[in-house]
Amino acid sequence: MRTFSDIKGLPIYEQTTGKMVGTIADIWFTSHGAVKGLVAEQGGLFGRRRYLPLSAVQSFENDRVIICDADSFQPFPSSDSGHSLYGERGLAGSMVVAADGTTIGLLDDVYFDGQLGKIDGYEISEGFFSDLTEGKKRMELAPFTAREGVVTVETTM
């Protein structure tokens, strides 16, 4: 199972022309774990971010992402329709708290299956030294709500 950080920065190639049309910058997903799309950074003098629906992705490979064609990019969906990991209101670094109020750690990354279009779990950090000695923790998928830097998962610890 791969984390989003495994594909962040990968080049995006257009299947029809073989031309590189951007790089993966972020992921867009719902609070119930459905991956809706990716955020791509496009080059040029004024590099810009564009939304790429997951349905436009032909394949995730080890060193690239292949899409149908560059016309697949769309305007960003409303912020009410999902969350990003690293964007302006991204969830990475947010405190993760269980429904009963127990602090779990900080959201570091998400495990996802691009072919199925779903988040499988969360990668949780308990701090720098804990990560060094024990490693990061994997938490199974649970629906969540996100407000002001706190992600509340619908589970108890």
UniProtKB/TrEMBL annotation:
Domain annotation PRC-barrel: ranges: 3-67, 91-143
InterPro entries: PRC-brl_dom, PRC_barrel-like_sf
Pfam families: PRC
Signal peptide positions (record): none
Protein name stated in the entry: PRC-barrel domain-containing protein
Annotated source species: Geobacillus kaustophilus GBlys
